[in-house]
């Protein structure tokens, strides 16, 4: 096995299915170094289950070393490249692409485990057994439970401590310990505030009493903790108010949805300056992702819904090596016109990454106050058009396009987090020839296919947005796609599906305000409940 990989150093552990080294308890794990996954990558088989298990273990709190992936990709590589670019894998997994023999020798140095790809069932779990420090993985739903959780110990002992044979006293030689995850359902409680009154017996005129604590909902019954719980349940977890009403009723607590809607309006009112501040910070960035999605809203007096829009803006400078915290801002509007984006991004004249929607074109006008923005298009939107044809197996051109595009995302995975100049240089050397070959292929094939076909539409879309699609080659601050803002929109589409519609324009603005702060907290791995409860208490 070592000879096959050219490994001569005995300090490097080579693991493969069936070898003793798979079992963590049968070896002494190294204290540092990376796990090296080397070979052709097939996301649907070996790499897919490996990432599933690795993510499960990492999120569970186990101490696992970084995972380095090296090898050629297949045509299905796009989705998993996007996956390892997102937390929690983005901070633990690094894809370095195909490596030549010389570079491969360098990767061996410092690797604590060399993993050979295998298509056998259950591949991911044995690998994790070998890479885990002191925590063997024995089943898909087992592993180290989070260390920060409180432990409630229960000792199950024998009743008779006399030997069943000779009746001498037994002495303890060890124990078996197992852990199970338990949950205590949320319970309501009533906070009773007493304010004693004091009077003077001498003058009989003075009455002194402490001031009543301030509340977000003056004269109302909810504490700031309850308000935070309701807001997070709806705007972060997709649980509409009518469902929360039923859940609370099980505890024999009657909280009407109309009352909760009014409370959320108060919360939104107080948090609006913070949401505005988030958007201001986004406008101060060098690059912004932008997109929009529908938000059906109840039209007053008609009993019907109208189509409103949730505009979304994301600032995330981490892909090009900056340390500023990522942020997302939502804005509710009853229009999808360019004037909305113009108002939201007033004063911004940097890079704007969008999906090609024409409403953003007015921001690139040369006579725009404050200067024009630089528009960059999204390769993921273009890829979807070809991918649908590829999956349907109706076009060899679409299949060839998807296969070549996967190379672009593999390159992006390698340069994520690097300096803009480095990203630009690598793209010019490696991505630009791939893109030139794609446009050459499309230019050659377009006259040969029916003009009204889906393939022709996809090619014309690419040709029409060529300048925007190629812009990321010349600026290392840009990304290849608009996926960060699409990921920010996805939770809102789930909430929209469950809630069906916003109750009013005011409800839509409240939605945008609270979702802005909760989504930004999530991007920065901040506990949303603790943050919102504390913030509301300070505002009150």
How would you describe this structure to a colleague?
The protein is an alpha/beta fold. It folds into 4 domains: 2-131, Glycogen Phosphorylase B (Rossmann fold, 3-Layer(aba) Sandwich); 224-268; 269-377 and 482-539, no CATH class; 379-474, no CATH class. It is 42% helix and 12% strand. It is built from 17 helices and 12 strands. Strand 8 (287-298) and strand 9 (305-315) form a beta hairpin. The radius of gyration is 29 Å and the shape is globular. The termini are far apart. The model is unreliable at 1-33 and 116-142 (pLDDT under 50).
List the helices and strands and how they pair.
Elements: H1 2-5, E1 14-15, E2 34-38, H2 46-59, E3 67-70, H3 77-84, E4 93-97, H4 101-108, E5 111-115, H5 124-131, E6 197-199, E7 207-209, H6 224-235, H7 241-249, H8 257-283, E8 287-298, E9 305-315, E10 327-333, H9 338-344, E11 351-353, E12 374-376, H10 379-392, H11 396-415, H12 420-445, H13 454-464, H14 466-474, H15 483-499, H16 505-523, H17 528-539
Helix pairs in contact: 2-5, 3-11, 6-17, 7-8, 8-16, 10-11, 10-13, 11-12, 12-14
């Amino acid at each position: 096995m070592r000879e096959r990989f050219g490994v001569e150093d005995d300090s490097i552990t080579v693991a493969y299915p069936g070898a003793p080294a798979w079992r963590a308890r049968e070896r002494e794990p190294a204290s540092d170094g990376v796990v090296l996954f080397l070979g052709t990558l097939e996301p649907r088989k070996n790499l897919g289950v490996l990432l599933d298990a690795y993510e499960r273990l990492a999120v569970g709190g186990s101490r696992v070393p970084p995972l380095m992936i090296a090898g050629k990709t297949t045509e299905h590589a796009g989705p998993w490249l996007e996956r390892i670019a997102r937390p929690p894998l983005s901070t633990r997994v690094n894809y370095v692409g195909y490596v030549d023999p010389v570079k491969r020798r360098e990767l061996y140095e410092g690797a604590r485990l060399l993993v050979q790809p295998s298509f056998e069932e259950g591949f991911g779990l044995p690998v994790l057994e070998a890479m885990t420090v002191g925590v063997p993985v024995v089943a898909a739903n087992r592993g180290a439970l989070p260390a920060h959780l409180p432990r409630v110990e229960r000792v199950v002992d024998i009743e008779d401590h006399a030997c069943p044979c000779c009746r001498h006293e037994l002495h303890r030689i060890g124990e078996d310990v197992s852990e199970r995850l338990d949950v205590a359902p949320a319970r309501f409680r009533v906070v009773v505030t007493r304010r004693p009154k004091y009077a003077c017996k001498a003058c009989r005129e003075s009455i002194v009493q402490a001031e009543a604590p301030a509340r977000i909902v003056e004269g109302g019954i909810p504490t700031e903790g309850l308000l935070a719980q309701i807001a997070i349940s709806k705007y972060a977890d997709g649980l509409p108010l009518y469902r929360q009403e039923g859940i609370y009723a099980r505890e024999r607590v009657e909280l009407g949805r109309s009352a909760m809607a009014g409370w959320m309006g108060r919360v939104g009112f107080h948090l609006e300056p913070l949401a505005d501040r988030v958007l201001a910070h986004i406008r101060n960035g060098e690059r912004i992702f932008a997109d929009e999605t529908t938000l059906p809203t109840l039209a007053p007096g008609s009993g019907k819904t109208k189509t409103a829009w949730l505009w979304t803006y994301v600032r995330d400078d981490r892909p090009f090596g900056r340390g500023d915290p990522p942020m997302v801002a939502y804005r509710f509007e009853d229009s999808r016109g360019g004037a909305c984006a113009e108002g939201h991004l007033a004063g911004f004249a940097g890079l704007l990454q969008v999906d090609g929607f024409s409403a953003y074109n007015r921001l690139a006008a040369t006579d725009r106050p404050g200067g024009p923005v630089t528009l960059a298009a999204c390769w993921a939107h273009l890829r979807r058009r070809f991918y649908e044809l590829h999956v349907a197996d109706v076009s060899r051109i679409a299949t060839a396009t998807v296969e070549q595009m996967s190379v672009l995302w593999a390159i992006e995975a390698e340069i994520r987090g690097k300096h803009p100049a480095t990203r630009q240089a690598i793209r010019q050397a490696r991505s630009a020839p791939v893109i030139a070959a794609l446009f050459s292929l499309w230019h050659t094939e377009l006259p040969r296919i029916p003009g009204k076909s889906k393939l022709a539409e996809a090619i014309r879309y690419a040709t029409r947005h060529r300048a925007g699609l190629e812009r990321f080659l010349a600026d290392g601050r840009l990304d290849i796609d608009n996926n960060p803002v699409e990921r920010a929109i996805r939770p809102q589409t789930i909430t929209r599906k469950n809630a069906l519609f916003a109750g009013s324009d005011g409800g839509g603005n409240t939605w945008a305000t609270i979702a802005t702060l909760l989504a930004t907290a999530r991007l920065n791995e901040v506990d949303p409940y603790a943050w919102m409860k504390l913030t509301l208490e300070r505002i009150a």
